[in-house]
Write a structure and sequence with these properties.
29% helix, six-stranded mixed sheet, 14 helices, Nucleotidyltransferase, domain 5, Ubiquitin-like (UB roll), 24 strands, alpha/beta
């Protein structure tokens, strides 16, 4: 018997040769298969359809998949190995990854620089001419660590096993190194790169820099080392002939990472005489409120619901995702990214759907789903369950409670905030009316501004800052990190925010 097997992937037309017994999870992530629960067999995100070959049904699959789905050939990729030749049907898609093309003020310098936004789900890198500020190239990709979990806590848990932390570190360094080499090669810029700046949340900071994430797995969730980290490109295995310095900017405390420090720089919050707020909603909710005198920040354990994680038919914002839901002529109308039939729902679509359900009475203010089946069909085959609505309640309650507590710590109310910046892809695409309807944000429409990818813009600004380490230190000194978990009022406010507005 050969120790190699063939896997045909439709409709891609790809044919792979892999080692017999290789986990499908290790093989299929690069071809568009998601593993939201990190391959624990707790969700349906990694479904593939068996067209020929044998994949015996496991106990986990029998518990999660419907009998008719199993009969039709559906399996969970995380529960199976390539023991024989297989023909599988998977759905490849293009993800919506938010870049940044805004002009900004800078002091011209020689050479080129590279800015990298290391997100939990996605990566974006831009190559800049430091003399003109022009973007010479852009590369985006999925974070390869997502094969071991869609949210930061699942990766912290995975990193706890021997050798797993090193695996996560090596995978992200290698992927960004590939992106850097592609950017330099396409721009014919080898020999000119002078600086690289990387930003990301605290877990991404640790896993890129090789810092132990174990302290982030339990109360009080305080990192032992979260400051500026400096490398040479060669230390990271990157093939850049100038061997430029690579700086991972410092975090602000707890789970509030350097992506939020970059967001402060991008929105110029540290220069604002008026009170402003920045909220970045991804797999972790991070909030900053303040002005040039003082800032307070916190992270909320919102979970991955805003990016489609832990939702029965959830997915990231990509081809096939329902991204908008509204009423048209008394019927539900769903917009599907990329056109064609839907295959899941992303965060913005989930918020729209629940807001619509509240308006029609399909969902009660306490979150109860008023259907006989416990499932609400949006557009076949995509539906929402009672558990899905509960996940959104948990996420929105955590964020709303965080906003209330930070404003209370500041000694201000919503009426005192002059501007709310919504950062990141979710903040850029969410329907603000739907967000207000579910109680996620309560600010007046004229105060809310989608701010785009503030992490990437802030990273680009850092490329131009002379003596930027001192600037970062000055900003950090003005920011107080609040641990919501230790706030005595958090649980009461959190419970109060679980209800949807009447």
């Amino acid at each position: 018997m050969s120790d190699r097997v063939r896997i045909q992937l439709g409709p891609l037309g790809q044919v792979l040769e892999v080692e017999r017994g290789a986990p499908l999870q290790d093989i299929l992530f690069d071809y568009g298969v998601e593993f939201p629960c990190g391959g624990q067999g707790d969700c349906r995100g990694c479904r593939v359809k068996l067209l020929s070959g044998e994949l015996p049904v496991t106990a986990e699959e029998a518990a999660i998949l419907l009998p008719e789905e199993i009969a039709a050939g559906w399996r969970l990729a995380c529960r199976n190995r390539a023991e024989a030749d297989l023909r599988l049907e998977i759905a490849q898609w293009e993800a919506v990854i938010l870049g940044d093309t805004r002009a900004f003020e800078f002091t011209p310098q020689e050479g080129l620089g590279m800015a990298v936004d290391l997100g939990t789900t996605t990566l974006v890198a831009q190559l800049l001419d430091l003399e003109t500020g022009n973007v010479l190239g852009v590369r985006s990709a999925l974070n390869p660590q997502a094969a071991w979990g869609s949210d930061i806590m699942s990766r912290v848990e995975y990193a706890g096993a021997p050798d797993n932390a090193a695996r996560l570190t090596e995978s992200i360094r290698a992927r960004i190194g590939e992106m850097a080499a592609e950017l330099v090669g396409s721009a014919r810029a080898d020999g000119r790169v002078r600086h690289v700046v990387v930003v990301g949340n605290t877990v991404m900071h640790h896993l890129f820099c090789g810092v132990d994430v174990e302290p982030l797995s339990h109360v009080p969730f305080q990192p032992v080392r979260d400051g500026l980290e400096l490398f040479r490109a060669s230390e990271l295995g990157w093939a850049l002939s100038t061997d430029p310095p690579v700086r991972f900017l410092p975090c602000l405390g707890g789970f509030v990472g350097s992506d939020i420090l970059a967001g402060i720089l991008a929105t110029r919050m540290q220069e604002s005489p008026a009170l402003v707020m920045l909220i970045d909603l991804g797999t972790n909710g991070e909030i900053v409120v303040g002005n040039r005198e003082r800032m307070v920040c916190a992270s909320t354990a919102a979970g991955p619901a805003f990016e489609g994680g832990r939702i029965s038919m959830g997915m990231r914002a990509a081809t096939g995702a329902i991204s908008e839901v509204k009423l048209a002529g008394g019927r539900l109308a769903c917009h599907v990214l990329g056109g064609g039939p839907p295959r899941g729902i992303c965060g913005s679509g989930l918020v729209d759907a629940v807001a619509t359900g509240l308006e029609t009475g399909t969902i009660a203010p306490n979150g109860r789903l008023a259907t006989d089946t416990g499932r609400w069909m949006l557009e076949p085959p995509v539906s929402l369950t009672q558990a899905d609505i509960r996940e959104l309640q948990l996420a929105k309650a955590a964020v709303a409670a965080g906003v209330r507590i930070l404003l209370r710590r500041w000694g201000a109310g919503e009426e005192d905030v002059s501007r709310l910046y919504l950062a990141g892809a979710f903040g850029n695409y969410i329907n603000q009316a739907s967000a207000r309807r579910i109680g996620l944000i309560g600010f007046a429409e004229q105060k809310v501004e989608p701010a785009g990818n503030t992490a990437l813009l802030g990273a680009k600004l850092a490329l131009f800052q002379a003596g930027s380490e001192l600037e970062f230190a000055a900003v950090r000194r003005r920011v107080e990190h609040i641990s919501l978990a230790s706030d005595p009022e958090f649980q009461e406010i959190y419970a109060d925010e679980m209800r949807f507005p009447e």
